[in-house]
Design a protein that fits this description.
Radius of gyration: 37 Å
Structural class: alpha+beta
Number of helices: 9
Helix content: 25-40%
Number of domains: 2
Number of strands: 9
Strand content: 15-25%
Low-confidence stretches: 1-27, 31-45, 270-276
Largest sheet: 7 strands, mixed
Distance between the termini: 128 Å
Length: 284
């Protein structure tokens, strides 16, 4: 009896293994699911993203704009306060009041800070305009044109005028600064649009680089903008970029204005490679 009980106990693991193997669920192959990380819509490349980032703040409205020189204001007030304190100290036989002491304390730092601010100050860009062009700007200028004009016609500290947009357009070679905005020239186009010309001093940006960016001007400064490029002076390294407003349906293809005033499509000149024939060998 004991031997039969021991034999039954020895068969239990085998039965359990048989039951577990039989109870194993059926595994079915499943088709892979479609990736959920696929991009939706067109993907902006890094170049376009960098170009658009250069004009951040177009829709930003500031409560007020400072149209006077902060450097002159701070320097003048600091010097006036310092001179008053010195004069009052001398006239009072060396005795000073609380106001005179505060004048010494705040007059000297204000004068030095104002002088430093004046050193880093960029004056507004001069404007060559007419009453008709001014009226066209107020009525037809786009947000981008209005932003550029507003920023460049006030005092600037730190960055140069239009520094970030010019860097976004790859106009600043490595180790060099971007072109310098020298003048605005406003006019009315033959089609009745507002034309905002910007003359740049570009000592490190060749004219061919300006032409290679021709297809980007309409999208960068747009919408409803057509660009005209003109070489003002090769010796002085001056280039003029004119942004002209367009109506719906008008072409926004960039153009180049030649020295005689005519307009041609803005293209890149490819010099003709003339292959010289080898000199003929003398026959004996």
């Amino acid at each position: 009896m004991r031997s039969m009980y021991i034999g039954a106990l020895m068969l239990l693991p085998t039965c359990a293994a048989y039951q577990l193997a039989g109870a194993r669920p059926v595994v079915r192959a499943m088709t892979p699911m479609a990736s959920r990380t696929a991009p939706v819509g067109p993907v902006m490349n890094s170049e376009e993203e960098g170009i658009r980032s250069g004009l951040i703040g177009i829709d930003t409205k500031v409560p007020f704009e400072i149209r006077f020189s902060l450097g002159n204001l701070i320097t003048g007030s600091g010097l006036a306060l310092l001179l008053y304190s010195v004069g009052a100290f001398l006239l009072n036989n060396g005795e000073s009041s609380l106001v005179q002491t505060l004048g010494f304390v705040y007059g000297i730092p204000a004068s030095l800070g104002g002088a430093a601010l004046k050193y880093a100050e960029l004056p507004p860009v001069p404007i060559d305009t007419t009453p008709q062009a001014t009226a066209a700007r107020e009525a037809l200028a786009t947000k981008v044109q209005a932003k550029i004009f507003s920023d460049a016609t006030r005092f600037c500290y730190g960055d140069a005028h239009m520094e970030e947009p010019l860097k976004a357009l790859k106009f600043a070679p490595p180790g060099r600064g971007p072109p310098e905005l020298r003048q605005f020239t406003e006019s009315v186009s033959p089609e009745g649009g507002y034309a905002m010309g910007m003359t740049f001093f570009a000592p490190y940006t060749p004219y061919t680089v300006w032409k290679t960016r021709g297809k980007k001007y309409a999208t960068f400064f747009g919408p409803n903008i057509r660009a005209e490029l003109r070489k003002v002076s090769s010796e002085k390294r001056l280039v003029e970029l004119t942004l002209i407003t367009t109506k719906d349906g008008e072409s926004t293809e960039p153009q180049e204005r030649l020295a005689d005033g005519s307009l041609i499509p803005l293209t890149i000149e490819v010099p003709d490679l003339k292959v010289e024939a080898p000199p003929a060998q003398a026959t004996v």
